[in-house]
Amino acid sequence: MDQADPVARAAAVATEGLAGRCSDERATHLASLAVNDPDARVRIAALGALVRCARRATARTTWLELVGDRDAAVRRRVAELAPALGRHVPTGWLILLLQDDDTSVAEAAAFALGERGHRSVRTIRPLATAATNHADALVRESAVAALGALGDERGLAAILQACNDRPAIRRRAVLALAAFEGPEVDAALQRALQDNDWQVRQAAEDLTTPNT
C-alpha cells in the first residue's frame, strides 16, 4: 500500500472492518487513525471500520471525539453512523450535529434522530424547528421524515406546516401523516389530493385509498 496515497490508505482501512470482530489492539489502531490521520478520507474509513468491527462501547468513544471534527465530511459520517451505535450515542450530540453549519451534516443528523425512536420533547422540538425553519430544503425534508418516523403528536404541527412547503417536502410531509389521525390530518390529506404536484397527490391517494 502506498502510504502517501490517502485514497489507497482509506480503502485499506475500510477493508479492516469487513473481517469480523476485531481485537482490542486492532480497535485501538483504528481509533487512532480515525482521530489522528491528517486526511479526512482515512478518518472516515477508520471510523466506519471501527463501528463495524469493534464493541459499541469502544466505538462510542471515538465517535464522540469526531463529533467536532474540522472536516464536514467526517462530521456527516459521524451522524450517518449513529444509528449503528444505538443507545451508545447520546441524543444531545445528535442535536448538536442537527445544528451544524454544513447542511449535509444536519440532514444526516435529522435522519439519525428519526431512527433512534426516542419520543422526547428534547428530540421533537429541534426536529420541528428544523422541519419548519431551516434554510436548506433537504434538511427540512429530512427533519419532516424523522418526525413522521417518530410519530409523536408533538411533531404533528410541524408536519402540517411542511404540507405547504416546496413539492418534495410536501410529499414527505404527506407520507409522514401516515403516523397520525384526526381532523387536521384528514383535512391536510384532502388538500394534498388537489395538490398541483402529482407526487404529492399520489402520496395522498396512497394514504386515503382503502386497502382491498
Residue-averaged pLDDT, rounded? 92
Distance between the termini: 59 Å
Name of the CATH architecture of the largest domain:
Alpha Horseshoe
> What name does the CATH topology of the largest domain carry?
Leucine-rich Repeat Variant
Largest sheet: none
What would you call the shape?
elongated
β-sheet strand percentage? under 5%
In the CATH hierarchy, what is the class of the largest domain? Mainly Alpha
Query: Which regions contain 5 or more consecutive residues with pLDDT less than 50?
Result: none
CATH homologous superfamily title of the largest domain: Leucine-rich Repeat Variant
The beta-strand count equals 0
- What is the CA-atom radius of gyration, in angstroms? 20 Å
Q: How many separate domains?
A: 2
Count of helices?
Answer: 13
Question: Structural class, please?
Answer: mainly alpha
- Helix-residue proportion: over 70%
> What is the string of helix and strand elements?
HHHHHHHHHHHHH
Would you kindly provide a written description of the structure presented here, covering whatever features stand out?
By secondary structure, this protein is mainly α. It has 2 domains: 1-89; 117-212, Leucine-rich Repeat Variant, CATH 1.25.10. The protein is built from 13 helices and no strands. It has helices spanning 6-16, 24-36, 40-53, 56-66, 72-85, 91-98, 103-116, 121-133, 137-150, 156-162, 167-176, 183-192, 198-208. Helix 5 (72-85) runs parallel beside helix 7, helix 6 (91-98) packs antiparallel against helix 7 and helix 6 (91-98) packs parallel to helix 8. The radius of gyration is 20 Å and the shape is elongated.
